[in-house]
Amino acid sequence: MSVLAYIESSKGKIKKNAFEIVSYSSELAKQLGTEIVVLAINVEDTSELNKYGASKIIKVSNSELDNFDSQIFSNVIAQVAKHTNSSHIVISSSLDSKYMAPLLAIELDAGYLSNVVELPNNLNPFTIKRTCFTNKAFCESTIESDIKIIGLSGNAFGVVENQTNSSSENFEVSLLNKKITIKSTEKVSGKISIADADIVVSGGRGLKGPENWNLIEDLADTLGAATSCSKPVSDMGWRPHSEHVGQTGKPVATNLYIAIGISGAIQHLAGINSSKIKVVINNDPEAPFFKAADYGVVGDAFDVVPRLNEKLKAFKAQNS
Ligand SMILES: Cc1cc2nc3c(=O)[nH]c(=O)nc-3n(C[C@H](O)[C@H](O)[C@H](O)COP(=O)(O)OP(=O)(O)OC[C@H]3O[C@@H](n4cnc5c(N)ncnc54)[C@H](O)[C@@H]3O)c2cc1C
Questions:
Q1: Which class would CATH give 199-319?
Q2: Candidates 211, 260, 267: which one to mutate for ligand 1, based on the most atoms within 8 Å of Cβ?
Q3: pLDDT score of 33
Q4: Burial of 257: CB neighbours in 10 Å, binned 0-12, 13-18, 19+
C-alpha cells in the first residue's frame, strides 16, 4: 500500500500546485503509516520534490505524453498505481485533473472525491472534508472503495517543507491508441498563469472598454499578479477567453483576488469563492460582490486603482 501523488507539469517544468499535492500526500502517507510515491511525467528535474517529503519518484518519459490527453493520462496513472500498489491517489483539482479523474476511477474501480480541502478526519470509513454547492458550503464525504482518488483543492492545504532523500525509478508505460490527436496548442506566454498565481487582478464591465485595461495590467505588474476578467468582458472580445473566470470559466483559488468593476453575480462568485482574501473595488455600494468581500472600496475604479497602484509602488520602493 502507498500514496501516489500525481503532479502536473508543462514543457518539462513542474507546475506550482505540485508542491502542495506532494506536501498533502506526504502527510496523508504519515496518517496511513505508508510511503508516498510521486509520479512525474516528462519532468526534466524532479529534485525540488524532495523538499516536500517525497520518498520515491516514478519518472515516466515519453514524447507521446507531451500534450495532455485525459484517456491516455488516466491509463498511465492507473498503470503506475497498480505497479506501486497504491491505495490512495492524490491529484489536483485543475480542469485537466477533473476531466481525467472519472476515467481513472473507472480504470482502478476507485471512488473519487473532488475539491477536498483537508486531510481525512477518519480513515475507516475514509471521511474527508470538501467544498460543495460551487464552494459555498463544506460537506463531509466518505469513500467506500478500497482504492481512493482525492482531488485536492488548490491552496487548501498549503506547502509544508519536509526534506527527504527520495529514490527514483524510470517506468516504461505502454500507451493506449490515441482517439484524439491535438494538432496545435496556443498558450499565452511570458505572463503569469491564473493557475500559478498567488494574486489575481480581475476586471469587469465597469472598466468600460478594452482601452482601459492598462489599469488592470499596471496593478497586476506591481503586484506580480495574473490578470483575469468576468464573462461579458471576454464575450465582448475585450480580453481573451483564457482570462474568463467563474462557473463557466476558469476556477481561481488564489491567496488574493482583486475584483475591479465586477458586480459579483453568482456565476462569477462560483469560480472565485475558494480564493482566500477577496478585495472589491466598485462604485456601487449595493454591488452584491461586497457581501462576499473581505475588504471593499466604494469608489470609481478610474480614480481608486491608479492611486492604489502608486501607493503600492511607493511601498515596494521603500521596502526593497
Ligand atoms: C449560465 C451562465 C453562466 C455564467 N458564467 C459566468 C462566469 O463564469 N463568469 C462570469 O463572470 N459571469 C458569468 N455569467 C454572467 C453573470 O451572470 C454576470 O452577467 C457577469 O458576471 C457580470 O459581469 P460584470 O460584473 O463584469 O458586469 P456587470 O454586471 O455589468 O457589472 C459591472 C460592475 O461594475 C461596476 N462599475 C461600473 N462603473 C464602475 C467604475 N467606474 N468603477 C468601479 N465600478 C464600476 C458596476 O457598479 C457593476 O457592479 C454567467 C451567466 C449565465 C447565465
A1: alpha beta
A2: 267
A3: 96
A4: buried
